[in-house]
């Protein structure tokens, strides 16, 4: 069994996160103790990548010191330890998202996970043409006349793979539009999702607007026409209690690095019967049963999608990150971030000349509030200049189009600035950010 250390600050965690608890949590994150440009670091870029607690860093180090070996290959003791740690990690992450272990495929990140589904569906079409695969595989084939539906607010990682799938198969890509504020047009969704829809792919939470999608309504529309549902859970898995089975989605993708784990590790959730029906994404060693010089037979999922040497230490550290979040409590994290997100939205919206993107303070779209982030446009100042000014005060935020150019274009922007909170963010961090943001337009002479 893999060794997992309970964070010391969380062994007697109080019932709710507050500033005092957030400060204690911060002590588990070495990177947050540093200064930047002579100021204490205020890290408000967790939507891009999270910081890592000591327990995660130690889990990866402990693996290399005590268990380092190839998995599913050797019969020696270290190989057994490595394989146990690797598969224990899969089971831990599966429980965290409400899945069974054989429904979790390790990937490099969520981008790879979404590409896995899209490219495997393209391969299913080729297999169907050439009489390969069973009836379940043939049912996944996509071709001319079929439609793939996304939304206008998607991250590029949940848009471009579907563009390519449409191009390769002759299918048509359609999208659910947003209104002038960025809210999904659910009246249009009922029109766009129709009898020809084979795939519906959408983000659980927007990485730009912070809005949460109406998952139940969208899934119901897809189920009505028999379409597959692919959920981009990158901005929900780190911040919301997540039960993928209860959400009734077919596939979901999420990245470790956004939820306290190292870079280089992500996961794809898929219904067992669908994963077993999909052709493999990568081929090679470790994912086969029989190989001749003419052809190969592939293992069932998840191994059929895990060719070659895997991300073993990263998977072990991913499990440690999930344990840290679980010990803290996802309901507690969500409640704390909801408070921080509300203050971010309220504070940003109150600054003259600053346009908040997404739901207005206190407003709920589709019956849900916002996650703990706020993106905005500063009148007369480019987002990159805003980011540099904040950085000079030790405040780290994200600038640019956030890999969502179509959404920015729809909102009449080329770029925006985004502040995003996490469990280690304090009210002091938020107030320091808002104080600095209020000075931006005056500094650049944009108030005249």
UniProtKB/TrEMBL annotation:
Gene3D superfamilies: Aspartate Aminotransferase, domain 1, Type I PLP-dependent aspartate aminotransferase-like (Major domain)
InterPro entries for this protein: Aminotrans_V_dom, Aminotrans_V_PyrdxlP_BS, Cys_dSase_SufS, PyrdxlP-dep_Trfase, PyrdxlP-dep_Trfase_major, PyrdxlP-dep_Trfase_small
EC top class named in words: transferase
Record PROSITE patterns: AA_TRANSFER_CLASS_5
Keyword line: Pyridoxal phosphate, Transferase
UniProt cofactor(s): pyridoxal 5'-phosphate
Family annotation (PANTHER family): CYSTEINE DESULFURASE, CYSTEINE DESULFURASE 1, CHLOROPLASTIC
Role noted for this protein: Catalyzes the removal of elemental sulfur and selenium atoms from L-cysteine, L-cystine, L-selenocysteine, and L-selenocystine to produce L-alanine.
Protein name as catalogued: Cysteine desulfurase
Organism annotation: Sinomonas flava
């Amino acid at each position: 069994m893999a060794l997992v250390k309970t964070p010391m600050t969380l062994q007697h965690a109080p019932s709710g996160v507050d500033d005092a608890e957030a400060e204690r949590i911060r002590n588990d994150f070495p990177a947050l103790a540093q200064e930047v440009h002579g100021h204490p670091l205020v890290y408000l870029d967790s939507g891009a990548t999270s910081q890592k607690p000591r327990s995660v860093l130690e889990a990866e180090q402990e693996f290399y010191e005590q268990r380092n070996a190839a998995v599913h290959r050797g019969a020696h003791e270290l190989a057994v330890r490595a394989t146990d740690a690797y598969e224990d990690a899969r089971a831990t992450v599966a429980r965290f998202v409400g899945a069974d272990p054989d429904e979790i495929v390790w990937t490099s990140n969520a981008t790879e996970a979404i590409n896995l589904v899209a490219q495997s569906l393209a391969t299913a079409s080729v297999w169907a043409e050439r009489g390969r695969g069973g009836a379940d595989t043939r049912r996944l084939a996509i071709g001319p006349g079929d439609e793939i539906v996304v939304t206008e607010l998607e991250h590029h990682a949940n848009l471009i793979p579907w563009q390519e799938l449409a191009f390769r198969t002759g299918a048509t890509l359609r999208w659910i539009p947003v209104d002038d504020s960025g809210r999904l047009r659910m009246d249009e969704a009922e029109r766009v999702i129709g009898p020809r829809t084979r795939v519906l792919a959408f983000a659980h939470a927007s990485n730009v607007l912070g809005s949460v999608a109406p998952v139940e309504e969208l899934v119901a529309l897809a189920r009505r026409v028999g379409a597959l549902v692919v959920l981009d859970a990158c901005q929900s898995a780190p911040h919301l209690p997540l039960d993928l089975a209860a959400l009734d989605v077919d596939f979901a993708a999420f990245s470790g690095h956004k939820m306290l784990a190292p870079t280089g590790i992500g996961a794809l959730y898929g219904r067992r019967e669908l994963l077993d029906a999909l052709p493999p994404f990568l081929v090679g060693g470790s994912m086969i049963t029989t190989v001749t010089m003419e052809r190969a037979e592939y293992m069932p999922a998840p191994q059929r999608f895990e060719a070659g040497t895997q991300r073993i230490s990263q998977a072990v550290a991913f499990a440690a990150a999930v344990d840290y979040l679980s010990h803290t409590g996802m309901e507690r994290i969500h409640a704390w971030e909801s408070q921080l997100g509300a203050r971010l939205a309220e504070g940003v919206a109150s600054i003259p000349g600053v346009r908040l993107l997404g739901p207005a303070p206190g407003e709920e779209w589709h019956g849900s509030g916002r996650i703990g982030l706020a993106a905005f446009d500063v009148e007369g100042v480019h987002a990159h200049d805003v980011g540099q000014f904040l950085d000079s005060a030790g405040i780290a935020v994200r600038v640019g189009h956030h890999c969502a150019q179509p959404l920015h274009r729809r909102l009449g922007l080329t770029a925006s600035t985004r502040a995003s909170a996490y469990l280690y963010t304090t009210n002091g961090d938020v107030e320091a950010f808002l104080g600095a943001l209020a000075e931006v337009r005056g500094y650049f002479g944009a108030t005249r």
